[in-house]
Specification:
Radius of gyration: 28 Å
Number of helices: 13
Length: 529
């Protein structure tokens, strides 16, 4: 009971974590045309947002200089969203966008650009990070769904295939887990819609909310997960053993399919390989965790329970091997680098999950090699075994709770994409510089600079130098000379920024031997090791 109480306390703490503000997005804007802060001599015929993965637009608003809201025509193709606005007035405009990414997660943002001359920017409102109540409810429903899929559906399979008829198999507990999942799954669709549209919990009953939830990739996951849960319930209720076996087998297969249809791994190329890994991982976790409650009940019937335990002991090493191999492969793809284990929120959750898995495997090994041989001797072995298995179930619930947090913590590959393209705009009386910084894996970052004169015409320069300094961190100016790659475009390769934060950037443009233009300002830069 101590382990169960400890696990319950930890679940409450994990639930509180999902209410932390500042959640990261899962898709990211890598290029905007016009760029954020751009000064345009003429109104653009179209606006273009390019993301790091395919997206679908949810809400697009273009706010004019007077605060008037313009609704542009929107067309989405793969990772690009093209907007065709009506003729725009002179002044500063705000483009506010919210899209849903391929892995089913919403992301929003705003950018400013000016036509002709800048004006006092209109208020676009504060970018919301989501209603904490929605986030907490979404996490809780995820936890219940995982319990239903892995404990309930997996338990139904174990009962139908590995337990002799008439053997106690914790049917009530399995049915309870499945029923909780059946209730939570449709609710999670509505919560997904609230999160996608950035609406509060009180808007749950609105029809557009449910339409938005179903339109995301998670809608397909929820539908297949519901089929898996219903198949598990029917397998428990079936009087015919062949029918129960067929239903439970279909249910476990649906578990793997549901998990592979959305989520982080489903968007990683090659998708056929990563989705197959997610499928196998989910199926084998259901085989492993689903066996725990039926085994606790089966041990109470020594004659039949011993046979079920022997079958489980023979088969589970293969399932565990698949879980380890697929889990390690997916983690490698998502982490991108080793230090992400302790420098990102996703990595911290993964580290916590790995720690609990190690504890779970250690407990399982103790059961297999210490307690199981003692069961035949009678005494307190059966009671100790049941308690140990109950502790395994509690640890499994903690793992599910941690995995549910990944809904709010994108993998480092997505975090890298979120800072993949940084746009910086310098505008002085004599010159303008549009600076684009794009990190390159294992090679720092590449910097592209477009130079224009005060009249927004191409500026011919003899030399261009960028100087980065961070006085707060004690970093003196790091100077990098750019190479001209044609016309008024310059490039710097292998730029390394050792830490993220506020930097002072100075742009030095040598126009001629006697004319040098310098512009300087504070900018936010990502870490590009």
């Amino acid at each position: 009971m101590t382990a169960v109480r400890g696990a319950a306390l930890l679940l409450l703490l994990l639930g509180a974590l999902v209410q932390a503000p500042g959640a990261y997005a899962h898709a990211s804007l890598v290029r905007a045309e016009p760029a954020d802060g751009a000064m345009l001599p003429e109104p653009p015929a179209s606006l273009r947002l390019t993301f790091n993965e395919p997206v679908s637009p949810l809400v697009i608003r273009l706010i004019g200089p007077g605060g008037d809201v313009v609704t542009p025509m929107v067309a989405a193709e793969n990772a690009t969203v093209t907007l065709t606005p009506p003729p725009l007035r002179q002044g500063t405009h705000v483009l506010s966008w919210r899209v849903i990414s391929a892995d089913g997660h919403p992301v929003g943002g705003s950018l400013l650009f000016s036509v002709g001359a800048p004006s006092a920017p209109p208020s676009a409102g504060t970018q919301a990070v989501g209603d904490p109540a929605v986030r907490a409810a979404l996490w809780a429903t995820k936890l219940l769904i995982y319990a239903g899929l892995f404990i309930g559906v997996g338990g139904a399979l174990f009962r139908a295939w590995l337990v002799e008829p008439g053997t106690p198999a914790a049917v009530r507990w399995l049915a309870g887990a499945l029923a909780a999942g059946v209730i939570a799954t449709p609710i999670s669709v509505g919560l997904q819609g609230l999160d996608a549209l950035d609406l509060p919990l009180m808007a749950l009953m609105r029809k557009p909310v449910w339409a938005a939830g179903l339109s995301t990739s998670y809608g397909s996951t929820a539908l297949v997960a519901l089929l898996a849960l219903v198949a598990g319930l029917l397998a428990l209720a079936a009087k015919s053993r062949p029918l129960a076996r067929a239903l439970s087998l279909a249910g476990v297969a649906a578990v793997g399919i549901a998990l592979s249809l959305s989520g982080h791994a489903g968007t990683v190329e090659p998708r056929a390989l990563t989705r197959s890994a997610v499928f196998l991982h989910g199926v084998c976790v259901a085989l492993w965790i689903g066996a725990l409650l039926p085994l606790i009940a089966a041990v109470a019937a020594p004659r039949h329970g011993a046979a079920a335990l022997a079958r489980f002991s023979r088969l589970i090493p293969y399932a565990l091997a698949v879980v380890v191999v697929t889990g390690a492969g997916l983690a490698t793809v998502q982490l991108d680098r080793v230090d992400a284990l302790w420098t990102t929120r996703y990595g911290l959750v993964l580290s916590g999950k790995l720690a609990v898995i190690v504890a779970l495997l250690a407990l399982a090994a103790g059961n297999r090699y210490v307690l199981v041989p003692q069961l035949a001797l009678g005494g307190d072995a059966a009671r100790l075994f049941a308690r140990s298995m109950a502790a395994e179930v509690a640890l499994a619930l903690v793992i599910f709770a941690l995995v549910a947090l990944w809904r709010f913590t994108p993998p480092p590959r997505a975090l890298a994409a979120a800072t993949e393209h940084v746009s910086i705009h310098f505008h002085g009386a004599q010159a303008m510089a549009q600076i684009e910084i794009a990190p390159v894996r294992a090679r720092g970052a590449e910097v592209s600079v477009l130079l224009l004169d005060g009249e927004l015409r191409p500026l011919a320069a003899k030399e261009l130098t960028l100087a980065f300094s961070n006085p707060a961190a004690g970093i003196e100016p790091v100077r990098r000379n750019a190479a001209n790659i044609g016309g008024n475009t310059w490039r710097i390769e292998d730029l390394h920024i050792p830490l993220a934060g506020r930097w002072r950037l100075r742009v030095e443009i040598l126009v001629s031997d006697f004319d040098k233009v310098t512009m300087e300002d504070q900018v936010e830069l990502p870490r590009t090791p």
